[in-house]
Design brief:
It contains 13 helices and no strands. By secondary structure, the protein is mainly alpha-helical. α1 runs antiparallel to α4. It is globular. It starts with about 30 loop residues before the first helix and ends in an 8-residue tail after the last helix.
Length: about 425
């Protein structure tokens, strides 16, 4: 413009009961039927989303000949509604139903695809991505809260790894299939296929049980919107996560805004190449999610995975943009996907562990707003500066270098924090 289970079939419980049944966890997370439905729904919906997004970006750059400023506005049209509405959505999630809010978010996401199909100019694409921004502002805190309500706390890192493995497998298949349909037929045909797949995801979300936060749920107040931020600043682990996340998304959002122009002018490839590069990104993200899903001792070491993820993104961006070669771009995209997967799965697990039941939605919203707020700042800065096409490559290379430094500093900060808290620093097994 991103990120739970008790094993075995859960017994019937009332809609307001949020506590997983007692007993030792079973070895396979997907034996938990409610969590399985969530994973299937997220994975199928992600197929539609990841097919839609690169096609929309390539439409802007190739069909409508967008400048760096106009590409920045396209990304900002996603970020602005997210920043404005996500804190409210996070507060509502902590008081209402994560299931139904998640479903409403995906209904809006599916509804955005016909706007892109009808596009005759850039403003149509702006409207479509604006709608997707509203949808994602609802989905992110809802999905995070729902995962925390479906799984025991000691398996949240694995649960997020499993969930993101499904989402990132879709990031491989969605853009790849979309690019093939783009090349063989047309952009509209690929978007129509994405719309059909998106509709298929909705029944899975209906099957997810309606778990809700326990305890008192007083009426939402304006001051509640700042509570998630106060929790994030007060907790040392979340404070470090804020610093890493802010740096990561300042850089990566500039990359996403400028990537289509880089593909066109530096790699000299067609619009379908963007979909294939995103598929490579998805392959790396899927591999990273699988690694995290097997990390059985990752609790309290989430920040090590996050910092390592930032470092991997930086190295990948340098490989992608440093040579202007398509093969290097594919390899760099794989590494960037792996790094982002580590960040999202481990970062969400850290939030879910530290924030607790009653504040997960609000704290997740803080990081969602940070993610898209930095996107808004980055894209508006590019638009205001009127960045020339000739400066795209040095800008992206410099950004990769910044992330390498930030990732290394993050690893160092984690080791210091771990020593102060008496946490073993070895990598999760």
């Amino acid at each position: 413009m991103g990120e739970g289970e008790r094993i075995g079939r859960l017994p019937d419980i009332s809609p307001l009961d949020h506590t997983p049944p007692e007993g030792p966890p079973e070895p396979r997370l997907l034996a938990n039927r409610p969590f399985l439905y969530l994973v299937l729904g997220e994975g199928v919906a992600a197929l539609a989303f990841w097919a839609y997004l690169p096609i929309s970006f390539s439409e802007a750059a190739f069909r409508f000949d967008a400048t760096p400023r106009e590409m920045s506005i396209l990304l900002a049209s996603f970020s602005l509604p997210f920043v404005l509405s996500n804190p409210v959505q996070g507060t509502l999630v902590d008081r209402w139903s994560p299931k139904w809010m998640n479903l409403l978010g995906y209904l809006a996401l599916v509804g955005a695809i016909p706007l892109a199909m009808a596009a005759t100019s850039l403003p149509w694409l702006y409207a479509s991505t604006f709608m997707v921004g509203l949808a994602d502002a609802t989905i992110q805190p809802s999905r995070s809260a729902l995962t925390g309500l479906l799984v025991p706390a000691d398996r949240l890192v694995q649960a997020n790894g499993v969930l993101w493995a499904g989402v990132h497998l879709a990031l491989v298949v969605g853009p790849l299939a979309g690019g093939i349909v783009q090349r063989a037929a047309s952009n509209d045909a690929a978007l129509a296929a994405a719309l059909g797949v998106g509709l298929l995801s909705l029944p899975f979300f209906l099957l997810v049980p309606d778990r809700r936060p326990g305890g008192e749920r007083p009426p939402a107040r304006l001051r509640d919107l700042g509570e998630g931020f106060r929790v994030a600043v007060r907790e040392p682990e979340l404070r470090l996560l804020l610093a890493l996340a802010g740096s990561l998304f300042l850089v990566i959002n500039a990359f996403w805004a400028l990537e289509p122009i880089y593909v066109r002018h530096a790699l000299r490839r067609g619009g379908d190449a963007l979909s294939f590069l995103w598929a490579a990104h998805g392959a790396g993200a899927f591999a990273g999610a699988l690694l995290v899903s097997r990390a059985r001792e990752a609790s309290r070491r989430e920040l090590l995975l996050v910092a390592g993820g930032v470092l991997a993104v930086g190295v990948g961006q340098l490989a992608y943009t440093g040579t202007a070669r398509y093969g290097a771009a594919l390899a760099g995209s794989v590494l960037m996907g792996l790094g982002l997967s580590l960040y999202f799965a481990a970062g969400l697990a850290l939030i879910q562990r530290v924030a607790g039941d009653a504040r997960r939605g609000r704290v997740t919203s803080v990081f969602g707003v940070l993610q898209e707020g930095t996107a808004l700042a980055t894209t508006l800065g590019i638009a205001a500066a009127g960045l020339a096409v000739g400066l795209v490559v040095p800008t992206l290379v410099a950004g990769g270098g910044v992330l390498v430094v930030v990732g290394l500093l993050g690893v160092r900060a984690f080791l210091r924090l771990a020593r102060s808290q008496g946490v073993a620093w070895r990598a999760p097994a």
